[in-house]
Design brief:
- By secondary structure, this protein is an alpha+beta fold.
- The chain contains seven helices and six strands; from the N terminus they run ααβααβββαβαβα.
- The chain has helices at 3-9, 23-34, 53-59, 63-67, 90-107, 121-128, 157-160, and strands spanning 45-50, 70-76, 83-84, 87-88, 111-112, 135-143.
- Strands 1-2-6-5 form a four-stranded antiparallel beta sheet.
- The longest helix is centred in the middle third of the chain and has 18 residues, at 90-107.
- The radius of gyration is 17 Å and the shape is globular.
- It binds flavin mononucleotide (FMN).
- Flavin mononucleotide is lined by residues 11-12, 14, 113-118, 152.
Length: 166
């Protein structure tokens, strides 16, 4: 599928079928993260693939997130990434790699939803043995969609794009 078609078709999915994600599709999704750009190519991330249902339920605070047959837990080593003018790039590195996965999943007919808020970092760390110096940035449930939401509203382009000045 052309990239723009995938970008236009992607939605955040909050209801999943229990059908397993084929390993070859998961491999492509993880390859997409592997190929993401990062600060000085430091690849500060660690992606923990969770299929075990009890673990899925233990690391999220919402049932629908745990209903997805796979959750990729996106962790970062902030010290491996850099920054500029007080802005830390590890979150940017993670955002790019996670979104690579989101789009690779969408291209293969799989749903995802960025989860930035529906987990407790200390609980996830304890459950999965994440070291103290790493951060849990986001969860990414992956599975076949059990819903087909329409597009969310977006601000008009002229509200956030300007030319030659702010
Ligand atoms: C960094 C980030 C964190 C998010 N966290 C959550 C979350 O915790 N729970 C949730 O249901 N959606 C979450 N979302 C999804 C957004 O709500 C969603 O992308 C937005 O409403 C636009 O809808 P769309 O993705 O279907 O276009 C998050 C998205 C981003 C980029």
């Amino acid at each position: 599928m052309p990239l723009m078609d995938t970008i236009r078709a992607r939605r955040s999915i909050r209801s999943y079928k229990p059908d397993p994600v084929p390993q070859e599709k998961l491999d492509i999704i993880l390859e997409a993260a592997h190929l993401a750009p990062s600060w000085k190519n430091q690849q500060c991330w660690r992606f923990i693939v969770i299929k075990d249902e009890a673990k899925r339920r233990a690391i999220t605070t919402r049932d629908w997130t745990a209903d997805a047959p796979v959750i990729v837990v996106g962790c970062a080593h902030p010290a491996l990434s850099g920054g500029n003018a007080g802005q830390s790039y590890y979150m940017l590195d993670m955002g790019i790699a996670m979104e690579h996965m989101v789009l690779a999943a969408a291209e293969q007919g799989l749903g995802t939803c960025w989860i930035g808020g529906q987990f407790d970092e200390a609980t996830v760390k304890a459950e999965l043995g994440v070291p103290d110096d790493a951060r849990v940035v986001a969860l990414l449930p992956i599975g076949y969609p059990a819903e087909a939401p329409g597009p969310k509203d977006r601000k008009p382009m002229d509200e956030f794009v300007s030319h030659e000045k702010w």
